[in-house]
Amino acid sequence: xxxxxxxxxxxxxxxxxxxxxxxxxxxxxxxxxxxxxxxxxxxxxxxxxxxxxxxxxxxxxxxxxxxxxxxxxxxxxxxxxxxxxxxxxxxxxxxxxxxxxxxxxxxxxxxxxxxxxxxxxxxxxxxxxxxxxxxxxxxxxxxxxxxxxxxxxxxxxxxxxxxxxxxxxxxxxxxxxxxxxxxxxxxxxxxxxxxxxxxxxxxxxxxxxxxxxxxxxxxxxxxxxxxxxxxxxxxxxxxxxxxxxxxxxxxxxxxxxxxxxxxxxxxxxxxxxxxxxxxxxxxxxxxxxxxxxxxxxxxxxxxxxxxxxxxxxxxxxxxxxxxxxx
Amino acid sequence: xxxxxxxxxxxxxxxxxxxxxxxxxxxxxxxxxxxxxxxxxxxxxxxxxxxxxxxxxxxxxxxxxxxxxxxxxxxxxxxxxxxxxxxxxxxxxxxxxxxxxxxxxxxxxxxxxxxxxxxxxxxxxxxxxxxxxxxxxxxxxxxxxxxxxxxxxxxxxxxxxxxxxxxxxxxxxxxxxxxxxxxxxxxxxxxxxxxxxxxxxxxxxxxxxxxxxxxxxxxxxxxxxxxxxxxxxxxxxxxxxxxxxxxxxxxxxxxxxxxxxxxxxxxxxxxxxxxxxxxxxxxxxxxxxxxxxxxxxxxxxxxxxxxxxxxxxxxxxxxxxxxxxxxxxxxxxxxxxxxxxxxxxxxxxxxxxxxxxxxxxxxxxxxxxxxxxxxxxxxxxxxxxxxxxxxxxxxxxxxxxxxxxxxxxxxxxxxxxxxxxxxxxxxxxxxxxxxxxxxxxxxxxxxxxxxxxxxxxxxxxxxxxxxxxxxxxxxxxxx
Amino acid sequence: xxxxxxxxxxxxxxxxxxxxxxxxxxxxxxxxxxxxxxxxxxxxxxxxxxxxxxxxxxxxxxxxxxxxxxxxxxxxxxxxxxxxxxxxxxxxxxxxxxxxxxxxxxxxxxxxxxxxxxxxx
Lengths: 326, 479, 121
Hints:
The structure holds three protein chains of three kinds. Chain A is of the alpha/beta class. Chain A has eight helices and 20 strands. Chain C is 17% helix and 37% strand. Chain C has helices at 35-46, 81-88; strands spanning 2-7, 16-22, 25-30, 49-50, 53-59, 67-72, 76-77, 92-94, 102-104, 114-116. The longest helix of chain C is centred in the middle third of the chain and has 12 residues, at 35-46.
């Protein structure tokens, strides 16, 4: 079996920052695992600006921010493998990995940093009544289709949820020639950043409907429209407030959930509030030597914050192994 | 000229086709959807009922008990998941005892074995999570759970391997009597056949009423469901029914063969036979009634909800047999629950009746088995490593939630009845059926489909023509 | 006298800024926590500026990429955003490209270049 001092699972903002920090703290025997064909994770599809103000004191796009860290990983010669999926992690810190070239292989680690990120809440868990047509996307999936694949999810768009990805996608779809009819938000206040409401909605005259929900979805094969209604304090639709929007696309930006299947398989104690593992001030989980960094630990608002926390985890992992004391 | 045209590629149509291909002859299945298993067969409780529920002497009772008995062997032959986990009808007050006893008596008359009424500790030992209010339950050891998609697909693939022709995206527009049988008028042209078998599900009355003066009437009775995350799959270990009502068997809770938990269905008659909408009222009813028979149920772990339609016929029983006033027209209508459980028996019996009428001989080189799509997770580590060595695409995981590899998706997309759309892939290999509901894998599955079909991403659909997922960006970008 | 209320988009703080002007001249800007706020407010008053970001189709990728992400090197006039978005669709970019490579010079006559924001092979 191959062995490494540190295995980092996930080559997004958290994994990259953790790898660099651990290396700089003296740990050289590192393996970084990424499931996509290139490093960078979700930053690759976050092509908008707004990253790096804290870390690099300038405003970068997601891919540029990722590239800074990728360059740091390359400069240090940190070993990484792309196109690799981790199947399981055992409490003995054996990481089971699969890819096309090597098949299934195992790596014995002394320490592990979990940096798998998060996933989006889906239509299924929201219990929106209606049909099951094509044209309903989570904002992140739509973002990938537009920015990475180069296709358009629709031309008449309603967005449910005003999280930052939803706001960013409302602008993105508008720039691609789609008409965003409205953004409905069930809360009294948008969870998105104010700057995004300004530059993504206000700039293009897209209405933000607070305390509104999508209460029905229409269309057999493809979505043809949605009903949007005002809701009361119990989140129930207020009769007489329903407005029908004809649309060919519904985008959902209703929250992110840390992706912790591997963490749970490992037996780490979970926090029911954050949906991430319970961690100490150095982001170590209840399994000694296993750390959690970034959105896998708790959903962060900003990538810069992810980097800061991941660096703490990276240094702590180095310290745990003893490499940090030289 | 076909010997038999089966209209409808649901579980009944595919079962009939599968058993028909045991005989010499030319058989064709036509289906209006883009795939087999697109109607009622894809959205139901996935239960192989024991058979105590249907009225004594009914066709429902007969085929249910026969079908249940065939299911285990069939699942071996055709390689689809089936588990005989047993069921419990749970009574929560003293008044339920006579109802349970009546069900038991009916079961005995229907020929159901392995039943008993259980109470107290025995009940709680069987099912620790049963409601504190539970006083007694009818236990039926022969009840089981099945993957309705792979049951139907397995039947269809086996039929196709044995020479049956499947014409998808083909809608019947009319039926004309011909000298030797029927001309089936479709939107894709005329098809001549000696016999027509009506397995058109909720539309079986439309088809029947085209040829017969004795009209039948099928009402679409909608059932809404929650599907819960695999973290909840072990909440119960049996299929748990509440006491039946005149609208059906009430809201059940059951593990699925894939380890999720299924809760439902509601029962509402609806006007439209295409109406698969979930409703606020449906959610409300599920929330209210789901946990009547069990203690702990975490509905917050719902990963999706869906609705299916029961093909409810006014006479309350299956209609199976040659139509009196339309020579060569065979009905399988009103196949609602326990239709899934009954399907193998209906398929076998209908095929035999039709073959006899046509005087068909048994086929000599009939292939009774079919291999399903390899699931690497069910292999040993060594076998899995070997598989990847032979075919590296089994080393690449596309759907993370369900651990589905590229190899499985390519297999699904290139089989004898290929998966052509996202839902068809999902039914075959579960990519997109997990907790992220395809958020991560759907763009990647679309790419694989586009590659196997040699088309652009913009041609890939969710569930057939008209459900294209993305548009090409408007571009004059050919500079 | 004219009062303009706005939220600065310079950083995630999102300062609420009030700008007072008379006869087309700015008299006062307040509410900003940093100098960027003043620049933003002035721009919003005279000629609102935004950074455009997008993605462009590519040809000849050795790693299976379909697009390369891009941006305007500097802010452009807010009014030009949609025109730039339409313009970049007309191109297919030959690979490889690196972060910072100019993909379109002087896009739509803005005197600003479109540059790549990602290394794509």
